[in-house]
Amino acid sequence: TWATWPPKCAWLPLRTSGKSHSYNLVSKYHKIWKGTKDAISAKDISRKEPVGGVIALKESMKYFDADFFNDSKLREMENGAKEFNVPAFRENRRLVAIKDGGLHDPSVLVFKSSWSWSSKSKVKESEMFDYPQTSMPQRPSNDEDIAFMSIIELGELIRTKKITSRELTDVFLRRLKRYGTVLESVITYTEDLAYKQAKEADDLLEQGKYLGPLHGIPYGLKDIIAVPEYNTTWGSKTFKNQVIDMEAFVYKRLKSAGAVLVAKLVTGSLAYDDIWFGGRTRNPWNIEEFSTGSSAGPTASTSAGLVPFAIGSETAGSITYPAARCGVTALRPSFGTVARTGVMSLSESLDKLGPFCRSAADCAIVLDAIRGADAGDPSSREIALEDPFHVDITKLTVGYLDSAEMEVVKVLSAKGAKLVPFKLNYNVESVQSILNITMDVDMLAHFDNWQREGHDDDYEAQDQWPVELRRARLVPAVDYVQAQRARGRLIREVQESFTVDAFIGNATDWELVCLGNLVGLPIVVVPTGFKSIEHPPKGNTRRRTTVTTGIYAPPDHDHIALALAMAYQSVTDHHKQRPPIDAN
Fold it and tell me: What is a GO molecular function of this protein (predicted)?
């Protein structure tokens, strides 16, 4: 699951006057160790009490679960750290850690989520999905109905010239400006860029050039994704005036598909939960609730019909949690499916980009546009996904956990899939702590300078990243590696117990969220109904709590999860319901 990048070993000797650089370092460290050991041995004969540095080091070692060294060894460690470790730490930070966010100098340790049998069925890299045809839709007479049309429907209106991209852009910018402040879901309106891209889309169509179902379709990006000439704030007051002069890979892909960027949408500060420098994003289905998850803006905006789709990200629940809370269909793809070049990094072995949409079919269309590898993201891959629109679900065996919504089980069974009770069997009990250690240490590596300069004191929610990243300072490199070894065992055990083509289960169970992200499993979050809110306002209320479930598949089998979700949504309409937003 782990490999070096590039594949040649970085520790091969580099010849310098007959000796390698690494040999010189080792020789230097050996001399330090030998001299220190001799000095300590002589001093220990005449001194029974440890000196101040050793006392402090001895006391601190308990926080690393390593309080088993005697005073002589502690003195040796203290001197070695001063002479060797600290200078090396400082030089490495100077090289790669001055700029926060992890946009440059990715780690050579590359996580590969593919299972050995995942690439049996190959398709051509350039082969696109075969999108379904829709009956000729009529243009609705009001903006509200237009706003809740699917990508497929809107695309057909544009293709047949029943509406222009300029008109669609007008509709969604008006809605963003009307409801964006209510939901606290928008950071930056990209109005000038939107009208420029809409004009380009309309002009191409006049020339007889149609780029596909995203041609002229407005959308939003989570504000950890770089777009030139616009602020990329990462949701943080520390970075709210930051402009990153690069086009993120996912933005370039959508631009080439003809899509129109109308807004940079809220990310929780530094991609943690729904609190950002401008407030806290709300749930359109119950305005008294918050959206949860750092992909708060993309989720709430899609749910409320402020954009037809949006791109968010997940490291540990930031697609699944807000999608479930706000009743949106969303896809967390297999790890590595979408290159993350130009995107703020939390954890290079956990971060994923995915779409929030009206339906699973829309998710498939967006995924088809944004998937692919890029040299700026060594973990990204050209994954041989089959066409989800042509998967025969009657040939699939689908498991369901105890937490599955049984309506989904019954519907898919009626559609011809084989449904069986299922349980993931694994013996690793530290799933949640493995994720926390991995995410927090990786995040700290990307925001080392931020913490050192004291910006954590200005962070919007003091009980979030500031606490976790201080704790991460006390994770030894040895135990970080042990966590990755335990992760490897977990992956093997999950693979061995994954005896079905897909399974249905709770989308927000924390153990499953951690497991799915560590293993790299794709999941489609599917709205399945509503229930009454716990504390309704007086009188009648349209506010609801959304009910959802998750459809999980093995890595690189996103098409199976999408096909099952599309089959379910073909005979249900939960995903088509409209939230009250600011109504009672």
Answer: glutaminyl-tRNA synthase (glutamine-hydrolyzing) activity
